[in-house]
Amino acid sequence: MDRKGILVVVSGFSGSGKGTLMKALVEKYHQYALSISATTRQPRPGEENGREYFFVTREAFQKMAEENALIEYAQYVENYYGTPREYVEKQLASGRDVILEIEIQGALRIKEQYPDALLLFVTPPSAEELKRRLTNRGTESAEVIEARLKRAAEEAEGVEAYDYIVVNDDLEACTERLHQLIEAQHSRTSLQKEFLNRIRAELKHLN
Ligand code: 5GP
């Protein structure tokens, strides 16, 4: 069966551990390509331009948006984040599944443009655990942590827009679960039109 790449949107509260999860997923399974977003946020210690994000100025970001070089973009806690179009389209065309680790506004825009996209929402087991992870990361100020927790409460209201929730309590189990859900999406009848047409034609031929 010929496989086309699908778009997989992964969202989750800031601090849900989805970054680590995505790295584990692409390392384990080579069918996945992880899209790198552009952002106006400052790099955190240890982040590298072109690896976690393309760190750009507000002017450069605006130019990308105007030139339609982003398939979606959104504002999140005072910064802009967007998905560069070219990489996504190239990878999908080559048959790889493309993972977008983006927030909810972006996720909804992707679903409008790509109805076959799979929308996954990653969450820690509890709010207490979320706060603990954000605090332990030690990269953000108390104000930013507070803003992110507030944003999490807002985002929690929109989770029904996603296809599946994945609770991240164990990295390995959660990686496996994500992979299974993506595999299941490939089997959806709406993504198997060519196969269905072929087998229908073959069946007619036999009768
Ligand atoms: P962070 O600053 O923690 O790296 O990311 C903040 C939020 O922005 C996260 O929820 C992340 O998933 C989201 N985000 C990252 N890249 C993009 C993007 O290209 N588009 C959108 N809409 N959200 C993004």
Jot down its keywords.
GMP kinase activity; alpha/beta; binds guanosine-5'-monophosphate; kinase; Guanylate_kin-like_dom; four-stranded mixed sheet; cytoplasm; single chain; five-stranded parallel sheet; 207 residues; nucleotide-binding
Give a summary of the structure in a few sentences.
Helix 1 crosses helix 7. It is built from 8 helices and 9 strands.
How is the topology of this model organized?
Blueprint: E1 7-12, H1 18-28, E2 32-34, E3 37-39, E4 53-55, H2 58-66, E5 70-76, E6 79-84, H3 85-93, E7 97-101, H4 104-113, E8 118-123, H5 127-137, H6 142-156, E9 164-167, H7 171-186, H8 193-206
Parallel strand pairs: 1-7, 1-8, 2-7, 3-4, 8-9
Antiparallel strand pairs: 3-6, 5-6
The chain binds guanosine-5'-monophosphate.
The site of guanosine-5'-monophosphate (5GP) has 15 residues, from β5, β6 and α4.
CA-based shape:
globular
Tally of DSSP helical segments = 8
* Integer average pLDDT: 93
The strand order across the widest sheet is 2-7-1-8-9
Look at the helices and sheets and give the structural class: alpha/beta
Q: What would you report as the Rg, rounded to the nearest angstrom?
A: 18 Å
* Proportion of residues in helical segments: 40-55%
N/C terminus separation: 23 Å
What small ligands are held by the chains? guanosine-5'-monophosphate
Pfam families: Guanylate_kin
Catalytic activity: GMP + ATP = GDP + ADP
Keywords: ATP-binding, Cytoplasm, Kinase, Nucleotide-binding, Transferase
Binding site for ATP: 12-19
